[in-house]
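Hi, here's the filled form for the chain we discussed.

Project: internal
Contact: R.S.
Residues: 186
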Amino acid sequence: GVLIDTKDTHYIALNQALKEVGDEYLITESEHISVYDGLSTKEKLAMLSEQKRLPLSKHEFIWSKKQEITKSKLDKIGRSQNLIEIFKYLELNDYLIACCSNSIKKTVYQILSQLGIVKYFDYLVSNGDVKNPKPHPEMYWKAMSALKVTPEDTIIIEDSPTGLLAAERSGAKVCRVKDSGDLTLD
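And the returned structure, exactly as it came back:
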């Protein structure tokens, strides 16, 4: 959500997959914004089982279908000259850069590659690389540890409530953005 607006893509893809199981499991837009924003698909499915009685036996089907739909939507992403310029600047000024995402690693690589910026990242962490995804700060701590930096020397840019909570819990400096349009060198 910070580099490119994918919230709607993930929301729509999950609802399309849920619809194949039953309309009673669909997530409304207000639920998405207030409850599910920034959580991994697996966390969302667990919550849906708890709150809307989604059968656990359907999780694997829904997860796979959601990934398939998401990939087809993300295939349309192109290079971002704005992001390339930002990351070139950061690289020239010796910043270490990590991406910490609640998405699966395959999706993270796909997006960063298609945007033309994957080569600027020193470290990537996805939800599959940690025991505790956001809102737990584990993925931020893992990135800081791998890059050998302290929280005091780290700036985390986040947009979702879940990501912001994880960032704050990590002890790093936090820069809140509304969406990818807020991401500038300033």
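Let me know if anything looks off before we file it.
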